[in-house]
Design a protein that fits this description.
Thiol Ester Dehydrase, Chain A, alpha+beta, 6 strands, single chain, 148 residues, six-stranded antiparallel sheet
Length: 148
Amino acid sequence: MSDETALQSANPSFEEAVRASFARQGLMWTIGARIATVLPGRVVIELQRSNGSSQQQGLFHGGAIGAIADSAGGYAALSLMPAGSDVVTVEYKINFVRPALGTLLRAEGQVLRAGKSVTVARVDITAIDGDNRQVVALLQGTFMRVAG
């Protein structure tokens, strides 16, 4: 991932804007996801494994993985946008690279390129179990700025 220190937000209250938008997402609340980090161009979302986020074999469900990854990328994009902006997903591609074993899932979104209306972000999704950390999926997405 790129160095987030080089990115500057167009909104001095970007963290509050991201957290307020996240709080309005019913799906994130339903599955128990939470924002762990908000920096300019970088957002980390975490999800504890539960019956509501797992599939039939006890792994994290691919839909839950995709949901937090999509949100991490979108909010990384929003963190750079001007005040009063909102964000929508235009598209994303996700690759599941290994079974998502662990007790915690972490989606780390990082902006790769921010334009005036379209932003591209990458998200690394890591499953954590104690000291064991493994990347389980990778997402690249395109996010569009809309009026808030």
